[in-house]
Amino acid sequence: MIYSFDHAITVPLICCKNGRLSVTSLKREDIKLEKQEITYSHEVYLQSDQGDHHRFVNFPPDDLGINTGTMDVYESKTCVTPCHAKGKVFELIIRQNNIANCLRNVIKNNIEQFKIAQTLKQIITNENISESPYIFVYLWKQEGGKCSVLCFTDKALLRMIFANKTQRGKIVRGMIEEMLQEYDQKEKITYKTDKSDTVKHQKLTLYPVDYSDDIKTLVNTLEYKVFISDLVVGNVVKKRSLCDFIENAKLQKKVRELEEKLGL
Hints:
This protein is of the alpha/beta class. Helix 2 packs across helix 8 (about 240-260). The protein is built from 8 helices and 12 strands. The strands form 3 sheets. Strands 1, 2, 3, 5, 6, 8, 9 and 12 form an 8-stranded mixed sheet that branches. A two-stranded parallel sheet has the order 4-10.
């Protein structure tokens, strides 16, 4: 994303206007990169729920955060094009953590609107409920070894889920409606009762070209200008569990707190 902005490469933004998906362009200021202080998974896990953990209980970590005084959080996906499904160009695989975090993102940015009960359909059709960039999609083209990037807003993702006609889509919509009902009744959403609990796995495969002719036109004309080698900075960690990073960050935070308490 930063590489695209730095090299004047247009980043398409798929948004939801009047209940329909449309394509515009993402601007640097849309994600506040002029004040960039970017953190990644293990740090976002520690910081993103500060101040709203009472509303969003034991929510999963986000992929990326941009700290502009508050932590703006995002998801990221890497997709290969063409995908295995003929004519679909690429697939976007969404899991339970992505769905929960997306809904949280919409609510956080529209607290006043959610003082009135909302359904999934009302969220995507109500223009008074704002949307924001949410999922950065990195498209790797197998032929030629080049890539491109685009972005979906939180409401655009919810719009595709709403329109998905599969049995899995129905299950995911039910999950979203249950979270909305809990928020309406208790002004909070509980992802996990206890941090050590597990959440039932949900996987939904979305083919964005199915939901908008604009997206189909976009991906068919998308230019792949960036070599993958251009994006690699520093050494690559070949094998390291994300859990190791999270636990290490938590321990380092405890060490800093003890040092401050002891005046070291």
